[in-house]
C-alpha cells in the first residue's frame, strides 16, 4: 500500500454514452471498480473498448451519463491538479521548452516564477533531463519526451497519476527502460497509479492489480492480483509465477475476445 | 543560405533574361513591342536618378504596411475569438462568409465614396485583401489544436485566460503565419489596381503613368519593382515567422 492515505478511486455504476456520427454508442456500462489509495492498478482491454473513456471520466474531461466517479469520497466534476494524465503518444506543449512545460502547472496556479523554475530544474535533474531543459519537445527522443511529461505532472504532486497507454509508439528497448523508470518512480513516491494499456504482460509486470475489461460496453471482467515482489526487475517476466499469472489472464482475455468476435 | 541553391537561382534568373533578350531579338510573335532587358536596364537607371521613383516605393510600402497591419491587428484577434468560442463564431461567421468572396477591387468605388481621402480608401482596400485570409487561417489554426493540449492545461490548473495565452495563441501561430504570407501576396496584387484607380503616386501609379506615356521599358521597370517589393515583403514575413516560432526549427 506504500502508506499513502489519499488517492482512493471509486467507480460506482458508471455508464457513458456518446453520440458518434449520429449513432448512440455505449462506451462503458455498469462499471464498478475500487482502486485502493497508493496502489498501482493496470486496466487492460482491447483497443477501442472504452479504456480512454475511463481515463477521461477520472480526469474530469467527461462526465458519466450515469453513476459516479469518486476520488477520496468526492465526486469528480471537472479537471483537477490532484489527478494528472500522461497521454498517449505525449502531449507536451510543443511550443514550450521542456522547462516551460514543467513550470506550467506551478505558474498557472500562481507560484512565483523563480521558485517554480528552481523546483523544475531540480526535478529535471533527477529525471536526467537537466541537459535538455531549454530544448523543445520535438528535439527530444521518445523516451526523453515521456520522462519530461512525467516530470510536468509530478511537479504538481498529484495524488492520482493517470497513464493512458503512455509508452505507445516507443521502440521495444526504450519502452523497457521507461517501464523500469516508472517502477522506480512508484517505489520512490507513494501515490495511486492508474495505468491503461492493451499489453497484458506490461500490465502484469508493472501493477499490483490488473483489471481485465469486457468488450464494449466496457465493464470489469476480472481483477487479477499480482503478488510478485517489488522491486521488480525485467527478469521477473521469466519466473514461473509471472508466467502462471499471464497464462491465467490470457485465458480470460482469449475467451472475452471470442465472445466479442461472436457478437459481430 | 546554401551556396549551390543560390547559384542555381542566379543561373535561373540569368537564363530567363537571356531567353527574353533572344525572344525579342528574333521577333517572336506577340513580343515585337516588348523592350529588351538592356532597354529596361537603362530605363531603370533613369528612374533611379529621379527622386519621384523612391517616393513611389515609399508610398506603396506605406500603404501595404498600414493595410496589412490593420488586417492582422483586427483579423487575428477576431479569428482567435471565433475559433475559441463557438457562440461567437455562430454570430459572426455568416457575415464574414458573405463578405469574403467579394473581390477587394469590387470595394474600390464604395471605398472612394466612403473614405475621406483617396489614401485611406486605398489602405482600406488593401486591408480587405489581407483581412479575410487572416481571419479564416486563424480560425482554422485554433480548430486544429489538439483538444488534449487544452485538457492537459486545465488539469494543471490553468484558467481560461492562461489557456488562451499559452495554448490557443501559440498553437494557432503556424496557421496564422500561413495567413500572413498569403495575405501579403494578395496585398500587393490589390495595391496596384487600387493605385491605378485612386492613387496619385506609388508603384502601380508609376506603371500606369508609363503606359499612358507610351514608355514601354519604364512599364517593365514598374512591374519588376513590384515583383521585388512583393518578394521582399513575403521573405520578411517568413523570416518573422521563423523567429516567432523557434519550436518548429529542426534541432
Summarize the structure in words.
- The complex is a heterodimer of chains A (264) and B (251).
- Chain A is of the alpha/beta class.
- Chain A is 36% helix and 24% strand.
- Chain A has helices at 51-59, 98-108, 113-126, 142-154, 172-188, 200-206, 240-263; strands at residues 9-20, 23-35, 40-44, 66-71, 74-75, 83-86, 160-164, 192-197, 209-213, 220-225.
- In chain A, a hairpin with a 6-residue loop joins strand 9 and strand 10 (220-225).
- Chain B has helices spanning 3-25, 37-49, 51-84, 86-99, 108-114, 118-143, 147-155, 160-198, 203-212, 216-244.
- Chain B is 81% helix and 0% strand.
- With 251 residues, chain B is mainly alpha-helical.
- Chain B is built from ten helices and no strands.
What general outline of chain A do the C-alpha atoms trace? globular
Number of helices of chain B: 10
Order of helices and strands of chain A: EEEHEEEHHHEHEHEEH
Largest beta-sheet characterization of chain A: 6 strands, mixed
DSSP strand count of chain B: 0
- In which order are the strands of the major sheet of chain A placed? 6-7-8-3-9-10
Cα end-to-end separation of chain A: 41 Å
State the distance separating the first and last CA atoms of chain B.
Answer: 17 Å
Biggest interface reads: A-B, 27 and 22 residues
| Proportion of residues in β-strands of chain A | 15-25%
Question: Stretches of chain B where pLDDT falls below 50 for ≥5 residues?
Answer: none
The averaged pLDDT of chain B comes out at: 91
Which structural class matches the secondary elements of chain A?
alpha/beta
Taking all Cα atoms into account, the compactness measure Rg of chain A is: 19 Å
What amount of the residues of chain B lies in strands?
under 5%
Q: How many strands, which pairing sense, and closed or not: the largest β-sheet of chain B?
A: none
What is the string of helix and strand elements of chain B?
HHHHHHHHHH
Roughly how much helix do the residues of chain B carry, as a percent range?
Answer: over 70%
Q: Rg of chain B to the nearest angstrom?
A: 22 Å
Q: Give the helix/strand class of chain B.
A: mainly alpha
Amino acid at each position: 500500500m506504500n502508506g499513502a492515505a489519499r488517492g482512493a478511486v471509486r467507480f460506482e455504476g458508471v455508464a457513458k454514452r456518446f453520440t458518434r456520427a449520429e449513432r448512440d454508442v455505449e462506451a462503458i456500462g455498469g462499471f464498478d471498480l475500487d482502486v485502493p489509495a497508493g496502489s498501482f492498478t493496470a486496466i487492460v482491454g482491447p483497443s477501442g473498448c472504452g479504456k480512454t473513456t475511463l481515463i477521461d471520466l477520472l480526469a474530469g474531461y467527461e462526465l458519466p451519463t450515469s453513476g459516479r466517479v469518486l476520488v477520496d469520497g468526492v465526486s469528480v466534476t471537472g479537471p483537477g491538479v490532484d489527478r494528472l494524465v500522461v497521454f498517449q503518444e505525449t502531449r507536451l506543449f510543443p511550443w514550450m521548452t521542456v522547462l516551460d512545460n514543467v513550470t506550467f502547472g506551478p505558474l498557472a496556479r500562481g507560484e512565483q516564477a523563480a521558485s517554480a523554475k528552481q523546483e523544475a530544474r531540480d526535478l529535471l535533474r533527477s529525471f536526467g533531463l537537466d541537459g535538455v531543459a531549454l530544448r523543445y519537445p520535438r528535439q527530444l527522443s521518445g523516451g526523453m519526451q515521456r520522462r519530461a511529461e512525467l516530470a510536468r505532472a509530478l511537479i504538481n504532486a498529484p495524488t492520482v497519476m493517470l497513464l493512458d497507454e503512455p509508452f505507445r509508439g516507443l521502440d521495444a528497448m526504450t519502452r523497457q527502460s521507461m517501464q523500469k523508470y516508472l517502477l522506480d518512480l512508484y517505489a520512490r513516491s507513494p501515490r495511486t497509479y492508474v495505468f491503461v494499456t492493451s499489453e497484458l504482460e506490461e500490465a502484469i509486470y508493472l501493477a499490483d492489480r490488473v483489471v481485465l475489461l469486457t468488450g464494449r460496453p466496457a465493464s470489469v471482467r476480472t481483477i487479477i492480483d499480482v503478488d510478485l515482489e517489488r522491486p521488480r526487475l525485467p527478469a521477473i517476466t521469466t519466473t514461473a509465477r509471472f508466467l502462471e499469472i499471464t497464462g491465467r489472464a490470457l485465458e480470460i482475455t482469449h475467451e472475452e475476445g471470442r465472445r466479442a468476435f461472436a457478437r459481430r | 543560405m546554401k551556396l549551390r541553391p543560390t547559384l542555381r537561382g542566379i543561373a535561373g534568373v540569368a537564363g530567363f533574361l537571356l531567353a527574353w533578350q533572344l525572344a525579342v531579338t528574333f521577333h517572336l510573335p506577340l513580343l515585337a513591342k516588348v523592350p529588351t532587358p538592356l532597354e529596361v536596364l537603362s530605363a531603370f537607371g533613369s528612374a533611379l536618378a529621379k527622386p519621384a521613383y523612391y517616393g513611389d516605393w515609399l508610398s506603396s510600402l506605406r500603404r501595404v504596411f498600414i493595410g496589412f497591419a490593420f488586417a492582422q491587428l483586427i483579423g487575428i484577434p477576431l479569428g482567435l475569438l471565433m475559433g475559441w468560442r463557438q457562440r461567437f463564431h455562430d454570430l459572426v461567421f455568416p457575415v464574414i462568409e458573405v463578405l469574403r468572396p467579394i473581390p477587394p477591387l469590387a470595394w474600390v468605388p464604395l471605398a472612394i465614396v466612403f473614405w475621406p481621402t483617396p489614401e485611406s480608401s486605398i489602405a482600406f482596400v488593401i486591408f480587405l485583401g489581407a483581412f479575410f485570409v487572416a481571419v479564416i487561417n486563424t480560425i482554422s489554426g485554433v480548430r486544429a489544436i489538439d483538444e488534449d493540449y487544452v485538457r492537459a492545461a486545465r488539469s494543471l490548473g490553468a484558467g481560461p485566460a492562461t489557456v488562451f495565452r499559452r495554448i490557443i495563441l501559440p498553437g494557432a501561430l503556424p496557421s496564422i503565419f500561413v495567413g500572413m504570407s498569403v495575405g501579403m501576396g494578395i496585398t500587393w496584387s490589390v495595391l496596384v489596381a487600387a493605385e491605378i484607380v485612386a492613387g496619385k503616386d506609388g508603384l502601380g501609379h508609376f506603371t500606369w503613368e508609363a503606359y499612358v506615356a507610351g514608355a514601354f521599358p519604364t512599364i517593365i521597370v514598374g512591374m519588376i519593382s513590384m515583383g521585388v517589393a512583393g518578394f521582399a515583403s513575403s521573405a520578411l514575413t517568413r523570416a518573422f515567422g521563423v523567429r516567432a516560432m523557434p519550436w518548429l526549427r529542426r534541432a
